[in-house]
Amino acid sequence: MAIEREYKLDSSGIADPLKVEIGTGLSKVAETRKQQLSLYFDSAGLDLGRLGIGLRFRTVDDEPIKGVWTMKIPRNFNSAGATQREEIEVEGERSEIPGPIRKVLQRLNLLDSLIPTVSLKTDRTSFKVAMDGVKLPIEIDLDLVEFLDGSVYREVEIEVQKRELDGVAASIAGRFESAGGIPSKKTKLERATERSPYGPLAETIQPDLTSLEFWLRNGLLLSSLMLSSLVALPGEVEAFSFRGVVWEAVCYLRALVSETSEIELLLDEYAELSGSISEGRDFIASGDRLAESIYNRHFALFGPESSGHDALKGLDLSAVLTWDDEYLRSLLASVRKLDEVFNSIEDPPKSMTSVDRVSLLVDELLDIVIGAVPIGMDITLAKSAAEFFDLAVGKKVSSVSSGKTVNFHGLKIALSQLLKDLELLERA
């Protein structure tokens, strides 16, 4: 599971996408061509679509049975204009939905009501990007898409796997735009659904993934779904996925409830999961418990319509804090204050100090880091904020149980990165 970052452009206005130069020192290498058949699934009421979730099974080059199941869940982050989605991708057969995706569908009670909704065929020409002859983790896909109604659509996708290279990917997207491409946030699934019998329904339920109301209403649910799938995925998972998902959930809960005990309990539950991961212990059970706990909080706040539960009723959305410029300035001031304390420590070893001296500032900064909804937040800053959140929660819990001296070395490093990212954003 990883965050998918991609730039999409309608390339219908580009005379020949193959001939577009992608930039000085950059070249297109390792060309491949393949034909993909994508079958999308949802309920008859498009319940996945209401949450901005896409689910497909894709086969390549007429392979009849084996393919790749992919579920894409929206994330509330930005990165130089690229679309951000959490992507769960598992190889398998159409007849059996893999475990990580199955857990999401079970959580939504949609496993038994899932049906094929739309399909499309894509002729794809792909290239890797090289800089001065060295391959980069950036891929350019030139797609010719054919829908069930016989209409076709041309698209360019530039996918970047490392956030450090977002600027390079953005410049490539700019080259295609200069050649006549039109930037687009719309997915192939959305375009296919528009052309299908589900089009009228899709038009009425299409979520606004840029709105604060959407994320306050659905953020806890989406966080629980992502966490459920994370703990079921085989192999290693990017650390930010765990940290970021729970950090977001805490931010949403903080905006929706007034009881601090609710927040403290969720932090304690996360500390258990984080400790299991960092110590190499089995974290599946604690991860499932935390996902269930977050889901239950969502359900208590936004139960079925018949229950009458709606935490947004009476909530003044204009009073909800977000990571706007004013909030970032407040955060930056607190980060600098704590950084000065860390830098002033002279007692050897420098990475050791009394909990009493810095724990209050750490707790105050943690309170700010979870005190606003990170809607449309820069992905780089989100990663450093989530890392500080992870370590600060761990120290908050351990300081209660392990005495008066705590090693703050990791926190100091995380704080330095957070300070660096905040100052970069301030200059930008």
CATH uppermost class of the largest domain: Mainly Beta
Described by strand count, sense and barrel closure, the largest sheet is:
8 strands, antiparallel, barrel
Q: Within the largest sheet, what's the order of strands?
A: 1-6-4-3-2-7-8-9
CATH architecture of the largest domain: Beta Barrel
- What would you give as the CATH superfamily of the largest domain? Hypothetical Protein Pfu-838710-001
Q: Which percent range fits the helix content?
A: 40-55%
Distance between the termini: 30 Å
Radius of gyration: 23 Å
**What is the CATH topology of the largest domain?**
Hypothetical Protein Pfu-838710-001
**Unreliable runs:** 400-404
* Extended strand count: 13
Computed structural class = alpha+beta
β-strand amount: 15-25%
Number of continuous helical runs: 13
* Shape assignment: globular
Write down the domain tally. 3
Order of helices and strands: EEHEEEEHEEEHEHHHHHHHEHEHEH
Task: Give the integer mean of the pLDDT values.
Answer: 88
Provide a descriptive summary of the structure in words.
It is a single chain. This protein has 428 residues and is of the alpha+beta class. The chain has three domains: 2-205, Beta Barrel (Hypothetical Protein Pfu-838710-001), CATH 2.40.320; 212-317; 321-427. 45% of the residues lie in helices and 25% in strands. It has 13 helices and 13 strands. The protein has helices spanning 47-50, 99-107, 166-178, 188-194, 199-205, 212-232, 239-256, 260-278, 284-301, 325-344, 355-369, 379-401, 409-427; strands at 2-10, 26-42, 54-60, 66-74, 77-78, 83-93, 115-131, 134-147, 152-160, 182-183, 352-354, 377-378, 405-407. It has an eight-stranded antiparallel beta barrel. Strands 5-12 form a two-stranded parallel sheet. Strand 7 and strand 8 form a beta hairpin. The longest helix is centred in the last third of the chain and has 23 residues, at 379-401. It is globular, with a radius of gyration of 23 Å. The protein starts with a strand and ends with a helix. Residues 400-404 have low confidence and may be disordered.
